[in-house]
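Technical annex, item 7. During the second reporting period the consortium partners agreed on a shared format for inverse folding records so that results from different sites could be compared directly. Each record opens with the tokenized structure and is followed by the designed sequence. A conforming record, contributed by the partner at site C, is shown below for reference.
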């Protein structure tokens, strides 16, 4: 049975956190909020508990987990950071930054997928930090969703995916950032972004002047992942979703689909929504991509609950946090970028004559993300 306990996200009630800590210590699973998304937590030093995480999510066992710590002593207990890294990390931790480092033997193979490295971060969320402290062990925690589905930014998303598969959900309300942490691979003096997130390459390069951005950060799949989000399909709704080549193509595609009588919904910015006749799910403003990032995963779930058989989504500028937004969107769309309606219908397996008109007979409807 899954238990849900509501907690204050800024000053969590001690009894709820202690209850969660007892579950972690006993080898159970606790879903909890971080500043990025909800995590599905287990004792990172217990291989059998880690296997429960994989089983609950339906996650491939070669996709390593991120270990969450609440102190630099906790970092040193699971990894071997080079001395020069500690000062920059103090600038970014606690925060949405994960580092991939040589592991210590205390971390079981189940957590690292048998790799010699381990991904570690210190979350900037009071509930997460206190849960780690009370548990007295590092916590391995991928996102608390069914594998491949959009990551959870609200407790209701966790319940939707994992009811009956997790022992406890600590409901701390909506998460702050809405996309997962930035992941850095640290190898000797070389620092590479392998998954973009809330900390942007522009910000990180101030402390890591030779910072590199991997091709994986732009959505290219890795043969063998060293961190989450590098190989498998992620963040995807169950229905076809297509990214338009640009904003003008998006508007034209929507018009053509409407003229052909194909029901669809458009995920787009507030600015672009004014030019769309079909139903829209507004992600936020093009001028505030942190707003877009925060709304993104919830919007994908809203889209999945809609009756339209397919969706179109607007591309965004890849500077700043836009790189993280586009990384998630590319994976949600399977990497496909479309330029014409025929391609959408062909790849979506949709016939333009079998769906109710959504064009001239349908008025614009904005759906709140």
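Designed sequence (site C submission):
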């Amino acid at each position: 049975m899954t238990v849900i306990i509501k907690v204050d996200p800024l000053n969590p009630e001690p009894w709820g956190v202690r209850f969660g800590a007892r579950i972690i210590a006993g080898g159970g699973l606790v879903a909890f909020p971080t500043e990025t998304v909800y995590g599905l937590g287990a004792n990172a030093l217990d291989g059998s508990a880690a296997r429960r995480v994989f089983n609950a999510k339906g996650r491939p066992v070669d996709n390593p987990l991120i270990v969450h710590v609440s102190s630099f002593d906790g970092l040193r207990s699971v990894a071997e950071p080079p001395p020069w890294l500690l000062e920059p990390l103090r600038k970014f931790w606690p925060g949405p930054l994960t580092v991939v480092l040589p592991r210590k033997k205390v971390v079981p193979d189940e957590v690292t997928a048998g790799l010699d490295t381990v991904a570690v971060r210190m979350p900037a969320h009071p509930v997460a930090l206190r849960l780690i402290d009370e548990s007295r062990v590092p916590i391995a925690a991928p996102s608390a969703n069914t594998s491949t589905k959009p990551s959870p930014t609200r407790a209701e998303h966790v319940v939707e995916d994992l009811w009956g598969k997790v022992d406890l959900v600590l409901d701390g309300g909506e998460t702050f950032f809405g996309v997962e942490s930035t992941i850095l691979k640290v190898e000797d003096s070389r620092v590479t972004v392998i998954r973009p997130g809330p900390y942007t390459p522009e910000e990180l390069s101030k402390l890591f002047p030779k910072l590199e951005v991997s091709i994986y950060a732009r959505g290219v799949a890795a043969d063998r992942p060293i961190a989450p989000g590098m190989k498998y399909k992620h963040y995807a709704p169950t229905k076809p979703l297509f990214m338009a080549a640009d904003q003008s193509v998006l508007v034209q595609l929507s018009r053509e689909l409407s003229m052909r009588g194909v029901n669809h919904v458009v995920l787009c910015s507030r600015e672009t929504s004014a030019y769309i006749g079909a139903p829209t799910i507004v992600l936020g403003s093009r001028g505030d991509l942190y707003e877009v990032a925060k709304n993104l995963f919830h919007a994908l779930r809203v889209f999945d609950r809609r009756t339209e058989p397919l969706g179109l989504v607007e591309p965004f500028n890849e500077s700043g946090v836009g790189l993280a937004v586009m990384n998630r969107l590319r994976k949600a769309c399977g990497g496909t970028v479309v330029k014409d309606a025929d391609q959408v219908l062909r790849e979506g397996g949709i016939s333009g004559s079998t769906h109710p008109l959504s064009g001239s007979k349908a008025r614009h409807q904005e759906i709140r993300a």
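The longest helix spans residues 289-305. DSSP finds 13 helices and 17 strands in the chain. All partners now use this format for quarterly exchanges.
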